[in-house]
Specification:
The complex is a heterodimer of chains A (about 950) and B (about 350).
Chain A: H1 3-74, H2 80-93, E1 97-104, E2 106-107, H3 111-120, E3 129-132, E4 135-138, E5 144-145, E6 148-152, H4 170-182, E7 186-189, H5 194-197, E8 199-207, H6 216-222, E9 223-232, H7 233-237, E10 244-250, E11 257-264, H8 266-269, E12 275-286, E13 291-301, H9 307-369, E14 373-378, E15 383-386, H10 388-394, H11 398-401, H12 406-409, E16 411-414, H13 424-432, E17 436-445, E18 452-463, E19 469-478, H14 480-494, H15 504-517, E20 524-532, H16 535-542, H17 544-560, E21 567-572, E22 575-583, H18 586-599, E23 604-606, E24 609-611, E25 615-622, H19 629-645, E26 651-653, H20 656-675, E27 681-690, E28 696-707, E29 711-713, H21 715-725, H22 728-748, E30 755-759, H23 762-767, H24 770-781, E31 788-793, H25 794-799, H26 801-813, E32 817-823, H27 830-835, E33 840-843, H28 845-849, H29 855-870, E34 874-878, H30 883-891, E35 896-898, E36 906-907, H31 908-921, H32 927-930
Helix pairs in contact in A: 1-9, 4-6, 16-17, 20-21, 22-24
Chain B: H1 2-12, H2 19-25, H3 27-50, E1 52-58, H4 65-78, E2 82-88, H5 97-114, E3 118-122, H6 124-135, E4 142-148, E5 161-166, H7 170-181, E6 186-192, H8 195-210, E7 214-220, H9 223-232, E8 238-241, H10 252-262, E9 266-269, E10 280-284, H11 286-301, E11 312-313, E12 317-322, H12 323-328, H13 335-340, E13 342-344
Parallel strand pairs in B: 1-2, 1-3, 3-4, 4-5, 5-11, 6-7, 6-8, 8-9, 9-10, 12-13
Antiparallel strand pairs in B: 10-12
Helix pairs in contact in B: 2-3, 4-11, 5-6, 9-10
Classes of the chains: A alpha+beta (about 950), B alpha/beta (about 350).
Amino acid sequence: MTNNVKKYSAFSTYVAALIGIFITVSLVYIAFNISFEQAKEKSNTKEFIIKDGITQKINSIDEALYGMRSLFDASNEVETDEFRLLSSNLLERHTYIKSSMYLKLTSSKDRKLFERNTEDDGYINYSITEISNNKFITASLRDEYFPVVFIEPYTPISVKQLGYDYLSIDTFKASIYHAIDTAQAATALEAATSQNKQEFVVFIAVYAGKSTPETIKERRKTTTGVIALRINAEKLLKSHSGHEITLDHQSYNNASRNTLLHYDFRSTNRESNRTINLFKNKYRINTHSDTYFLEIKTPLFWNDLDLSLIGAATISGLIITFLIILQVKSIVNRNNELHRRNNETKKLVEARTKELAIEKERALTTLESIADAVITTDEQGNIDYLNPIAESITGWSREEAFGLPVHEVFNVQYEATQTALDYGLVYECIEKAKVVKITDNVMVINKNNSHETAVEISTAPIKGTKENINGAVVVSHDVSDARRLAREMTHLATHDDLTALPNRILLMDRLVQAISRGPWNDKYHAVLFLDLDRFKLVNDAHGHDVGDELLRHVASRLVSCLREGDTVSRLGGDEFVIILRDLSNPSDVRKIADKIINTFSTPFLLVDEEFFSTASVGISLYPKDGQSALDLMKKADIAMYRAKSLGKNNFVLYSEEMGKQDARELTLETDLRRAIERNEFELYYQPQVDAKKGIPIGAEALIRWNNPKHGLVSPLEFIPLAEQTGLIIPISQWVMKEAAKQCKYWQDLGLPPIRVSVNISAIQFERGNIFKDVKNVLKKTNLAPEYLELELTEGTLATNPQAAINTLNKLNDIGIKLSIDDFGTGYSSLSYLKQFCVSTLKIDRCFVKDVLTDSDDAAMCTAIISIAHNLNLHVIAEGVEDNDQLEFLKKHECNTIQGYYFSKPLPNDQFIKYLKNHHNQNKIIPFQQKS
Amino acid sequence: MDRHSYQSNGLQLPGADKDRQYSIHSKSGFHSIIIFLGLVLSSMLINEANANECLYVSSYHTGYEWNDGIEEGIEKNLKGTCTLDKFYMDSKRNPNASFIKKMAIKTKKYIEKTKPDIVIACDDNASKYLIMPYYKNDKLPFVFCGINWTVEEYGYPYSNATGIIEIAPIQPLLKVIKSIVGRVKTGVYLSADVLTEHKDYQRYKSKYSEQGINLKSAFVKTNEGWKKAFLEAQNADFIILNNNSGINDWNKNNIQEFVSNHASTLTVTNYDWMIPYAMLAITKLPQEQGEWAAKVAQAILSGEDPGEIPIVVNRRWNIYVNDPLIDASTYTLPSTIASKAVHRGK
């Protein structure tokens, strides 16, 4: 703000303030005057009341006097008691009457008689008195006396006045005679004491006779006495505080006024120095006989004014002043603001103009330097600008293209169809004044059709100042790299890294697509699930690199033996799935399957070595075997497993039966998983009897599964399923723990200790931790290790012999007995027998069964017994069912016999009974005999 | 002693019965009560110490009706001014001079012992046997009352004594007589034949003669004598029945019956006890004597010089009307008297 503006603003404020102050002062002045007049009015009203009150009291004095005179007029002789009664009533009502008296006129010649009579009445030493030096002394000689004969109130103090002659005082004398002469009340001040006592006396004469004499002479002649009232002037005027009051009495010769009372009541309750004015009024009070002058001065204090009115006027004035100043300041500020804004606008316009120039330069530079192609057109769609990138991708120079329709220069085509783009988008953009974007796969073809650039295009209208459209700007962003990357990403997401074949995602997509077309023209589709046989061996034996190489070769061969349009995909591992579409005849699939199987007959040359590999293929057909992609895949998988189970290196078409079997297996598997926790397993014990002594020396624990839904399920059915699913491990652990617990229980029953043997599956031996399991069982059951025997097959031990040796040694070290089950049916390697710490060989039941009729079986049995004995091993034969078999085995010194001849497998309670019986009888009881 | 009994009462007054209860419920409360009582007692003792002491000396005894009235007036008006102690000389029942003198000495000793600030002496004997011989112009102020007609024989006024004289309402009585009878010329003064009655008669006679009335006297010593004189006085305009004290065979019923049968002339009296035999009575008030004595005592105790306070006379009267006698007579009472008077006999 400039100095001039500041000065102008300050000047305006001062003027406004002066106007406001003028108004304020005017309002206060008016309010003060109103308030002053109101106070004056109040004061006048008060003074009138005071004046009326005082007038009434003065009149009351007159009335009292006249009333008392009436008593004397009415009575021949007023007694002291009568005067007392009348006066006491008067004094009570008019407190300003200090005392009432009766002064009896006594002449000088009657004085002595009067004094003597009074003395006779009891007043000893009585005499008429006067005052000298404030003491009552005998009155000096006068013609007449007016001594007090009655006085009320009658007190020890007041009675001193009895006999006091009021004529001894000149002022009283004058008034007494004035009263006598006028027959009216007369007022007198007691000169000596008037200033101090504020008292005056009013007299009225009493005449002899019943009426007032007419002449002064007669009045003087007939006067018998005077009634006097002593008035306390202070009490007369009191109760009028806050005023200065002067009461004057007009002298009887009208020459002067005697001040009866001057009293300033202001000092009693207010500070006189706070007085702002003094109202003064004079009143004349005429009684029946006298004239009084009353002057009342009423001070005006600030408190008497209506300060709220003055305050309100002051506040109103200040508010008005404030509002005027505010208004003026507001106007001044508004002017200043307008002035300032004008200046700012000018500066802003200059700055904006400069900025626009810079902005334009910056825009041009940006357009020239950005990586996007920018083309601008006029409102007709004719080109008026190309930036360098646009020149580059179109092959047109700015000069060549200027003025040409945009579609002639900017040749855009769809990538997929190679068809030209509809150029309505530029015109749509101009006509509808909206941004039009094209993010589809489009590309720009240059002038010579020699180069194409993938782009995304955005067209925006160029708006004029009046919202009209001046043209369009076409921005083309080169997305070549992005599109290539997207294509690569898509390929990676849908193809197998290793073989570059479609992966499961793309496979399922294509299968779904094929199904979605439905059976078409009586044609069908086939899903081939292919799994390499023994691929794991290749991986394990030669490493994953070789395995991967094999997979790549397999993929290549599969692709080569299929039609174009068929899909070969790799699901993972060694699993491939092939989709054959639009087959006319089911036999077609067999041909292709044969072709695939045959393609594996040629060895694969990998790392300079030939590898033979076969494949098992399962086939499902659409729509016969399923309606969904997953269904078809699942059924092809089932068929593939069937092909595996049928010997591998072949293909199998899915059938309904396979599905059912598969369903039972699935149910069984589910129930099997819950069997342990539902306590559905039970152990049966088949005794093992000492061949020579005929007493039980051991028992084989055999598992049974009693399922509420499936009934008693054969171990031949659920054990393979358990091995296949891995459930065999927890089942075997349960068997071992249960068998050991029961064995200890038998011992605790006091039965002779026998050994219990449990079968250990190959999977448990390979995958589990058999040593740890055995130790846990022994610890939990407190069974001595020599009473637990583990039965293993030759195959179990032969899978990984070294590992088996280590495990068996550890078990042997802790005292566990080990037995080779089904000896003679497998490898029967004697070298292994030597290395394994086994204690028993168990002759398989298939040799025992025909031992008496088949010489080979007999030879096998004797050979096994012989080998065992030579190796210092124990031999046990199972499946002994009759006495002849028993005798043959005993003859060849087989140590222990197990079979139905002695007992079938028994539940625990029956087995306990069996043991008790044989313990008591101490002899062999063949099963047949018992039954 | 009244004062002592008052003090002992004061000791037992506030909450004495509650002390035990407070000791049970609250020890601190008990202490507070004790402290409070202590403060009250101290305050009372201080007030006692600072208060003026007035001694009332009665020439007679308690139960003497006139003196009881005076005593009532004193007590009523001295309340709050001083502690009032009392001493009775009992000279009414023991009129023997030697007894009275002994009692005066006893009284003097009592005064010396108790050292009152002022003494109010009632009736003549107290002035005659106590004040005049022992305390004339002494420092101890005296206020006398109840002395009949004049105090000249006791040498009043003294510098230390003032009081009120008891006079009979001679003038008011005449005023009433005149208002009933109208013009009166003769009257009879009928009373016992004793010295004081003779003195009184002279006063009446003197006053009445100033107004032209011839007042004759009839002093009698017996009941029958009184009746005979009463019959003889019936010719006068009025009869003043003054004190019968001194007529030893006074028969109240006999006289009352006699009067009711033979009263035709207006009978008046100044004595209360003569009301049953008179048609009209104007009597003094004993309370007025007591009241004035108390007021003077207050003024003296406030600093007034007793020698400066004039000796005054009583001026208040009561008017009684014996209605059966008036009704049986030919007199009609003026309404001013009938309305103010106390009516007896109806």
